[in-house]
Amino acid sequence: MTDTPVFQIRDLHKSYGALEVLKGVDLTAPRGHVVSLIGSSGSGKSTLLRCANLLEDSQSGEISFEGEPVKWRGTGADRKPADPRQVTRIRTNLSMVFQQFNLWAHMTILQNVMEAPVTVLQRDRAEVEEAARGYLAKVGIGDKCDVYPAQLSGGQQQRAAIARALCMEPRALLFDEPTSALDPELEQEVIRVIQGLAEEGRTMIIVTHDMGLARDCSDHVIFLHQGRIEEEGAPSELFGNPKSERLRGFLSSTS
Ligand code: ADP
Ligand code: MG
Questions:
Q1: Domain assignment present for 104
Q2: Are 23 and 49 in contact (CB under 8 A)?
Q3: ∠ CA 168-106-93 to the nearest 5 degrees?
Q4: Which residue, by CA, sits nearest to atom 15 of ligand 1?
Q5: Where is the ABC transporter domain (predicted)?
């Protein structure tokens, strides 16, 4: 069914001890859509992404992947995913790109991109290599296959991290502030790659402090405030006609 969202989160609650970080959040990632998450530092954006791909446990609410609800055992603080195979399937299909690129320093760029498809997904090495070279070329660093991460600029390292995420052939890409560790001129080269992926119709969730990126690339924008969705909608509405006072304050503080 083409209109089943890639993943869907309903009424998600997440606490760290006594600190409730997500207070009933909904998020739908329709296939081929880009959803941006914006909000102040500490509003829960990273936590929401990490809960979506089950890197973090959550205490209540539903998460479904391609229409299939995550199976849980236990409740509240004891709630855990029940099926390790389902967890692996979801995690490998929702590839994350982090602010700090997290490339392995002792591996070449090509080895970095090939590692997970070969070891986790156990795909054929020669096929993975061909795909990896293709993705590195696609993000504009096809000539950097044999160098080590330290030999690349931050923007090139982040593009390598995007190629690595793509090489998993995931159903969706999750970006957590992909440009915030970069100098402004390097930020643009990463933004162009993300814009290209949006134009290809990739399903993406992008946490970003870059309002230009959120406005230009997204189909839907969510403004989180202290663990709740304060406002959401089409980028033209959210940026052109923000309704909540908090969102107006946030937007004026970022421009
Ligand atoms: P954002 O990404 O929007 O800046 P986060 O999701 O990182 O926000 O954090 C939301 C809140 O959860 C913050 O108050 C943060 O301090 C807290 N938090 C995040 N990770 C942890 C953790 N591992 N343990 C305890 N508190 C955490
Ligand atoms: Mg964060």
A1: no
A2: no
A3: 15
A4: 42
A5: 7-251
Q: What is the rounded CA–CA span in Å between residue 156 and residue 140?
A: 8
For 211, the domain range is 7-99+172-253
> How many domains, in total, are found in the chain?
1
Instruction: Give the dihedral of Cα atoms 85, 90, 95, 96; nearest 10 deg.
Output: -100
Alpha-carbon span 171 to 175, nearest angstrom: 13
Q: Which ligand is nearest to the CA of 180?
A: 2
Task: With respect to residue 69, please indicate whether it lies within any of the assigned structural domains.
Answer: yes
Nearest to 223 by CA among 45, 46, 37: 37
Q: Say whether 80 sits in a helix, a strand or coil.
A: strand
What DSSP element (H or E) covers 238?
helix 235-240
Rg of the chain over Cα atoms, rounded to whole angstroms, equals 18
Q: Is residue 25 part of a domain?
A: yes
What ipTM was assigned to the predicted interfaces of this complex?
0.98
Question: Which two three-digit tokens encode residue 16?
Answer: 């760290």
Residues paired with 220 in a beta bridge = 35
pTM over 0.90: yes
Q: List residues near ligand 1 (CB under 6 A).
A: 16, 19, 21, 39, 41-47
Ligand 1: which atom is nearest the Cα of residue 44?
6
Report the CATH number at residue 235: 3.40.50.300
Ligand 1, closest atom to CA 40?
3
Mind listing the pLDDT tens digit for each residue in 25-76? 999 999 999 999 999 999 999 999 999 999 999 999 999 999 999 999 999 9
**Residue that has been written with the tokens 């959040």 in this structure:** 25
